[in-house]
Amino acid sequence: MKRSTLILSVLLVLSAAGNLAVLGIFAGHWLRGGGGGGPPSSVERLMGLVPEPLRPEIDQAMRPKDEDVKAQMEAFRAARRAVTETLRQRPFDAAAAEAALADLRQVTGRAQERLHRTIVERMEAAQAAGTLPPPPHRGGKGKPDKDGPPHPPPPPPGN
Question: Any idea what DSSP says for residue 89?
């Protein structure tokens, strides 16, 4: 075997191994459901403060099954589309962009208000029924949360 053939063969094997490694990384990311892996959204952080047993009920209350929620979701999508269109428009119209962004803020504010009201109502009802569990322990034993002071360690079972 010639020396150049040997070198090309080694390079081919190394290239194939590198491609397989990159492919494996992407496949692993995809199989893990890899969306951004970035910081949690404000809704995820807020729901993380809600006791686990109440989360499905709040999630169901926010599903777009009734006409009010469906209309709110469509208004949000329309506002997002308007923002996208005005920011991509050339020549750029600053007044139209400001108006579209203001509309998006209003629509987003209404959705947040509905979520916040739903959380408070469900937690209040659970407390009145005596079924409100203790707050979730994020961060572990005395470790600080990203959003606040450290939690005390959970009480021992039976107390």
Answer: -
pLDDT at 80 over 60: yes
- How far lies 125's CA from each of 48, 128, 152, in Å? 19, 5, 26
Residue type present at position 76: F
Q: What is the pLDDT of residues 59-71, one digit of tens each?
A: 887 776 778 778 8
- pTM beyond 0.70: the answer is no
For the chain, which residues make up each domain, given as ranges? 41-132
Rg, the chain, Cα only: 26
Q: Could you tell me which residues come within 8 angstroms of residue 106 by beta carbon, excluding any fewer than 6 positions away?
A: 79
What is the distance between the alpha carbons of residues 45 and 88, in angstroms, rounded to a whole number? 31
Q: Other C-beta atoms within 10 Å of 98: how many? A: 11
Please tell me the distance from the alpha carbon of residue 145 to that of residue 33, in angstroms, as a whole number: 25
Determine the Cα–Cα distance for residues 33 and 133; give it in Å rounded to an integer. Answer: 30
* Predicted pLDDT of residue 143: 46
Question: Comparing C-alpha atoms, which of 50, 41, 40, 39 is closest to residue 116?
Answer: 50
pLDDT of residue 120 exceeding 80, the answer is yes
Helices 67-88 and 94-128: angle between axes, nearest 10 degrees: 150
